[in-house]
Specification:
Layout (H helix, E strand, L loop, with lengths): L36 H14 L7 E4 H11 L4 H6 L2 H14 L1 H12 L10 E2 L1
Length: 124
């Protein structure tokens, strides 16, 4: 059997190399009702994935991004607005990816598929 921590062969229940001792059935404090750590983590993951929150939408406006993209899109203005400065600089030096990227971004913003720097969709 190999040690899961360091990978050295284990002859007994304790690793001779790093001193790792596997624990059986770890439990969390009494506030969790004696559930195992894996059950608590699973429950936390399920609870955070089940319901969308208000924070799942960007505070940046889709209509403002659309207007900025229309007038300053070839200079990357809409990317600077949503906080994606790297792509904004790319658009600034390439003329909105030779206007092809600018047109694609206009459509993406209009249909609501454009995201901000945190990968959140823009609010209406």
């Amino acid at each position: 059997m190999k040690c899961p921590k360091c990978g050295a062969p284990m002859e007994s229940s304790t690793c001779d190399y790093c001193g790792y001792t596997p624990q059986t059935n770890p439990t969390v404090s009494n506030s969790t009702g004696g559930k195992t750590a894996a059950a608590v983590v699973t429950q936390i993951f399920v609870n955070t994935q089940s319901a969308p929150t208000q924070a799942s939408i960007s505070p940046k406006s889709r209509w403002a991004a659309l207007a900025i993209c229309y007038f300053l899109g070839v200079f990357g203005g809409h990317y600077f607005y949503v906080g994606r400065t790297g792509k904004g600089i790319l658009y600034l030096f390439t003329g909105g990816l030779f206007c092809i990227g600018w047109l694609i971004d206009l459509v993406c913003i209009a249909i609501g598929k454009f995201t901000d720097s945190n990968n959140l969709p823009l609010k209406k």
